[in-house]
Design goal:
This protein is 0% helix and 48% strand. It has 115 residues and is an all-beta fold.
Length: 115
Amino acid sequence: MNIQRSYTGLGSEANTGKDTWLIYPGMDHAFTLYHPDKSGSTTVTMKNLPGKLEITVTDAKKPSIYTIRMETKPTKVLFNEVDLRDSTDFHYDTQKHRLTVNLEQVKDGVLKLIQ
């Protein structure tokens, strides 16, 4: 999604210029976003594994925000095996059961959420 304002409850002005992905775990799935500026496409693939969720990003074109529905806060959040920092790189909203991961760098990789 291309979020630019907060009225939908799915993001805010801070999302402007970033791809915003809404992810609901449950089934393994893949989604391809075709960029309207004709810069190509980005694919996000989700794998549900015992005790963790893996989200693979291929052909990233912009910084991205991942909003993931989770019942509980993960014990670890990693991107390409590097620990992400709570309150800086990600935030868990206990009322909405939503994890928001902000990846400022444009690069491919694997986002791992460990329960």
